[in-house]
Fold these 4 entries.
Entry 1:
Amino acid sequence: MLKLKNIHKIFNYGRINENHALKDINLIVPKGDFVTIIGSNGAGKSTLLNLVAGTYFPESGTVEINGQDMTNWPVHKRAHLVGRVFQDPLKGTAAEMTIEENLSLAVKRGERRGLRLGLNKKRREEFQGLLALLELGLENRLEDPVKLLSGGQRQALTLLMATLGDPEILLLDEYTANLDPKTAVQILEITGRVVEQGKLTVLMVTHDLKQALEMGNRTIMMDQGRIILDLKGEEREKTTVNSLLEKFSEKSGRELTNDRMLLQR
């Protein structure tokens, strides 16, 4: 499904603050894998997602999705293949538009759009069915402006929008970080249902070590632009938060000092 080969990404090339954000990244993600990605600040987690999405291009290496080289494809050309949910709940929706209008735009992601959103009785019924999966009562609020929704409701709507159009890959970039704990748990439960129903391939960045081991079927740890640990199968099942920290120290040669990650042990 996704293949990153010899990826190297540099910011501020040739300047005094030159930063090698990703260094020789090689990663293969089969269809249906749910990969959680952890690491301290500056490890390269979000940069990795941005390269998959087409926000950034690598200095060297290739990005393949479904066997097709998309290394130099910009965001809009990959839009029908890659769905994404950001950390900021306000970022994935158009606040002044209604719920049904936002969903209509999401359905047309990556396609040419005319002046009409294509809303009709059948489409509204489809949207109601999809929204009912969220179990938030949004199926009865199709004509409400999105700005009236809570942060958790908007993030749930963004998640649903990101999966419309059957994307090949879903990117979740610390998408529960700005939510209160109770709402975050609810969004994670919704994510499980949506991913299972759509049989989606997922890359999820998180600072929560426990969450990283409980969600999905594979965990990758990054440090200073490199993948230093790739856990799956029985090894992952036996890994605890404490042993994960030990593995980090063993692979990196130093202690994990990220306060946010340590507080969520």
Entry 2:
Amino acid sequence: MSFTKLTGQETAVRLLKDDLDSGRIHHAYLFTGIKGVGKRTLALDFARALFCQRQDGEACGTCLSCRKIEHSNHPDLSIINITEGDSIKIEQIRELQRGLAFRPYEGKWKLYIIEDADRMTPEAANSLLKTLEEPPHYGVIILLAREAETLLPTIVSRCHLIQLNPLSVENIEKILLEAGYEDSEKIKLAAALAGGSPGEAKRLIEDEDFFTEREKLYEFLYNLPELTEVDVFQFVDELLTLLRNKEAFPFFNLILNWYRDIILYRMDSHADLVNSDYIALYSKISEKYSVEELISIIELVNNIKRYIDSNVKEDLALQVMFLKIRTKRVK
């Protein structure tokens, strides 16, 4: 049992192993990276190595401490995550503080992992800051967040930053194969569509409806230049129904990949296509758009995504987006 099982994060692993080997354990760490890239996995690997009773700098995987972490019942390890609403509340941080007031039960350290730390309420973040300013000598807190910039600068300044990078398509394919997935075509597509996140790739493969929904979306985009306003409004209604039933459907990423692929096809960069199974359609549609129009469409999609993230009404924003895309074709 070791850190080496975390594919593609050699720098992050080396930094943590250096701390373990030297015995200079920081009282606060901040692991950053996109969702599904391995932040939680790395934090638990670090916990195993920190608590292991048999080895230094690595986890044996078989001692009592390693087994307790594996089964989520180690008394000196706590994981804090969102349990109500969409944020980590101040009471959860107060519970952490109450726990840190007591010394470890079984070892040298007491470890807390805070998932989605960038979604703490302001009150929770300010309360945590007080703990980070004066932590007990046995306390270790690991924050997991997408980006350091989403946290208070005063919190970030008190943490040892560990950046986890998006993985290459090749590394994600390797992870999926090692995990036992067998459909080579789905593995290739999921790895390309996952945006560097092996967790997202696994989710896509296990979603039985994803590839069918993707096909419907791309059929709509292919035919969009010839569709009527009524057709567009009807599809937006269907898309909103899908999104309400399946919030994780990555339709913006799929749309962006579609138009980026058309640009790559026009540039003869076929090996870089994300949706390589749609190359036949790209050959038919690529001449309907100029490169300038495609770049403009990508900018439009990104802008609409930002508007929706800012709580602009979804149906109106999507209708405007698709109608504008429809008019950017070569006459």
Entry 3:
Amino acid sequence: MHRFFLILLMSVFSISAFSQKLEYNAQLYVFGDNREFQSQTSTSQTIFGERASFEIGTTLEKIHHIRIGLNYLYEFGSEMDDKTPKFTAYYHYEDTQKSVYVGAFPRMGLIDFPLALLSDTLNYYRPNIEGLYGKYNWKWGHECGFVDWTSRQTDTRRETFMAGFSGEIRHKSFFFQNYMTLFHYAGTALSNGTEDVNDNMAAVIYLGSDLDKILPLKKGYLRLGVIESSYRRRHEENKYVNGMSFTGEFYGEVKCFALKATFSEGDGHIITNGDPFYSIGNYIRTDIYWLIIHTKNIQAHINESFHFINGNDMDSSTQLHLVYKFRN
């Protein structure tokens, strides 16, 4: 941990020496997630903690941004040194049409995928993307993609990486959305081809419409689509296990309350970083939100989630999220 702080201190002096204006971002993310899952479809547990992050940097010519910092997770009830701080260091280019990130940069607020593809626990335990991200905007939509290097290959560690694409095309109140992820799980440096290499691909496409223009909603939409997945374990089965299901989502927000309902009907899916509930064939999730605070710097909400499994079992979970952002 001392090495992290030494690197950060040296970086502060370096940026201060060469920059005309020192900029900083600070964020506190407090989360509570109590999961009462009796069906054993997903892990029943209570996740309660906070993640504090701090970045410093400078901006050149209004489009070149350089940031360095630390990101630390403290789970309540643990010891301070149970978790190692995550080092954040990245270059960000942004103009009116495109945006590019290179390095280790925050995931929150940048990547927004359906839970079937990327579980919400990634924000708890893997706050940074370590690799690349790019986004290109048109008047009628956008497309973006990322590569996240999740494990470097050594004699004892297996190499893993994740990549994803997402985009949207809009015409008046109607939209088309696409999401895709790829996860590759390779062997160690000493495997000699004997370890199973896993390939996992998944995609979601939606057709939808905004509802807030035709219904008395502050914000609302309805989207329907398809989830597809493919999973292969080389050297063992060496063939893809495919899954396809129909999916849909409704969201409606009135004053400080919101309702979101999601369903998936069809095959179960094997998606490495996705929510485990989508591994079953018939799944319905309903979320009721109380939007406590929603200002420029502070967002806080509580939601109660009900998970209906194969029309028989029901699991429930309660989540609390508070995000405080401060920047100059």
Entry 4:
Amino acid sequence: MNYRHVAIRVLQTVPVLFGVSVVVFIIIHSAPGDPVVNLLGIQATEENVAQLREAYGLNEPLYVQYLHWISGVLQGDLGQSITRERSVSALILSRLPATLFLAVASMVVATVIAIPAGVVSAVRKGSVSDHTVTVGALTGISVPNFWLGLILILVFARTFELLPPGNYVSPAANPVESLKHVLLPAITVGTAYAALLARQTRSSMLDNINREYVKMAKSKGLSSRKVFVRHALKQALLPVITVAGLQFGYLLSATVVVEQIFAWPGMGRLIWSAVRQQDYPTVQGTVLVIAALFVFINLLVDMAYAYLDPRVSVS
């Protein structure tokens, strides 16, 4: 492993996260309304509003507020929530396990569906199986998450009562119940990503099937199954891994609507409520953490790609 390359990639994340912090800070503070008025209510006196604004440092110039906040971030302090009377770090830590659990479960669902479907579609190009996978992929991309989630709740939770309609249960507390509760939201989120991965798998497999090394393997008398699985699929999965890693990063922040539907106490739901209440520190801290996780996942994908394919230069 090229540690110099890893160090350079880590250093490259610094300006990215700095840019994210600046953009999010400006956008959230530019939104109409006042978080202090939202907190105290419209009957609050000007004196009470001024006192609370001073207590949270909201009466200072915008650049001064940013400098105070970013200096705290550099020391590991993401600030204090305006509406919840808790530190932003504590709020994020309480919601992060649920978000990660849903993201991992959704990616497992997507992978289990996508890779076999993509391989079958590529190997049997032009067949009924190929057309079925293509139609299924387009359907999965087109169907809105909120509609699919509501249908799954109506069918499996209300009509047949086979599964609970969401609500997070920690895997550490009860593994079986946690799987039951995560299944419907994971299918809801994972279906769209399965469609993307299936199309990528099919495209990558088709690109590798006609390569010289595959023809060479066939000429040696290897069965079609061994040729496709041991040779073509191994190389075809490299770009799929890249796409899957990027999609996993998106999953950390793209489940806001699904978390609302299934009452899932994740970071998406936290951001949603914080934006509605104009809780500046919570929005800023949560978005920054998600951005950091996204960048970290990209780094892991880059390292995994170079490890799986030594031909890839990481110098």
